[in-house]
Amino acid sequence: MAGVLVLNATFEPLAVVPTRRAICLILAEKVEMLEHSGRLVRSERLSVDEPSVVRLSRYVHVPYPTHRSPNRRGVLARDAHQCQYCGGLAETIDHVVPRSRGGGHTWDNVVAACRRCNGGKRDRLVGETTMRLARPPGPPPPSTWIEVAAGSVPHTWTPYLTADRRSA
Ligand SMILES: [Zn+2]
User: Fold this and answer.
1) Could you write out the three-class secondary structure of the chain?
2) Ligand 1 centre and the CA of 82: distance in Å?
3) What is the pTM of this model?
4) pLDDT at res. 70
5) Per-residue pLDDT at 168
6) 158 CB burial (10 A radius; 0-12, 13-18, 19+)
7) Comparing C-alpha atoms, which of 108, 117, 69 is closest to residue 90?
8) Is residue 158 scored above 80 in pLDDT?
9) From CA 3, how far away is CA 157, in angstroms rounded?
10) CA dihedral in degrees (74, 133, 129, 83; nearest 10)?
């Protein structure tokens, strides 16, 4: 159960809210439904399409949490669970410049890595190995936090999250 994706009036992904909350917002005409799940939500008084993506009718200014420091789930979501060295399934995060060599715990120094690459690299710099980074790491787009909050991303959300990813 992923909940409902809330977009700003400008279509930027903002948050994930529980289905009941989204239905209240729709009934109060604070949001419009863009996508529904295909299921119905029934209560005593009404039966409505279960929302999947809604959009605020009025723009709200939300400062994005770009200052959030990297954590494992955030880094794995940003890198789509792909090892940035070999392209395999990543379960760990690696400091590109190892912490023992002065590397920081910052978005531009952490990447998703599989156990094999992470273990193989040890406390060396990339240039001291035969490994190559797929791309230089950087701060995640806001949609990363949506993915982390939801746990999984329903297919109805994908176009809205990828649009955000392109502009970030
Ligand atoms: Zn790997």
Assistant:
1) CCCEEEECCCCCEEEEECHHHHHHHHHCCCEEEEEEEEEEEECCCCEEEEEEEEEECCCCCCCCCCCCCCCHHHHHHHCCCECCCCCCECCEEEECCCHHHCCCCCHHHEEEECHHHHHHHCCCCHHHCCCCCCCCCCCCCCHHHHHHHHCCCCCCCHHHHHHHHHHC
2) 8
3) 0.72
4) 92
5) 45
6) exposed
7) 117
8) yes
9) 11
10) 50
The encoded tokens of residue 57 equal 């009718």
pLDDT at 62: 75
Q: How far is CA 153 from CA 70, 85, 94, 160, in A?
A: 20, 25, 25, 11
Within 13 Å, how many C-alpha atoms sit on residue 33's CB side? 19
Sheet holding 13-17, edge to edge: 13-17, 4-7, 47-56, 31-42
Between strands 31-42 and 47-56, the pairing is antiparallel
Predicted local confidence at residue 151, as pLDDT: 82
CA of 69 to the centre of ligand 1 (A): 23
153 Cα: distance to centroid of ligand 1 (angstroms): 24
Distance 115 CA to ligand 1 centre (A): 7
- Which residues sit opposite 33 in a β-bridge? 54
Mean local confidence (pLDDT), 71-97:
95
CA of 161 to the centre of ligand 1 (A): 26
